[in-house]
Amino acid sequence: KKNKIVKREHVIKLKDLLGEAYNPAEAFNKKVSKMTDRNEHSAAAVELAIYMDDRDAVRKLQQIKKDHDKRGSLSSEDSKERSSLVDKLLKKAKKELSEKDYKLINSSF
């Protein structure tokens, strides 16, 4: 009987050994929330396209960001296209990600 008793202080939990598991959605949320707080919506949209691995959207959003940076403002046409692309990417995220990860991603915007 004595040998079967395990003292609590000797039990090491796997979580303690590994630390908190890395969650890409949480890292994305942290990074992109800061971007949107600084009004960097075009850059945040590019990050979303990268996260969702949509190369076509990455290319289009990078061009919108480049034009925005060059002009110093976002044209209404580019604003509409950026919004449309972000909406499309968020719909894709809702279909492909877990509910928890989707909520993290969506709340970044």
Could you explain the architecture of this structure?
By secondary structure, the chain is mainly alpha-helical. The protein is built from six helices and no strands. It starts with 13 loop residues before the first helix and ends with a helix. The model has no long low-confidence stretch (mean pLDDT 88).
Task: Please provide a brief summary of the model.
With 109 residues, the chain is mostly helical.
Question: Main beta sheet: strand number and arrangement?
Answer: none
Please tally the β strands and state the result.
0
What is the tally of helical segments? 6
The percent range for helix content is over 70%
Proportion of strand residues: under 5%
Mean pLDDT across residues? 88
Give the SSE layout.
Layout: H1 14-18, H2 24-37, H3 41-51, H4 55-71, H5 76-96, H6 99-107
Keywords:
single chain; 109 residues; mainly alpha; 6 helices; 71% helix; 0% strand
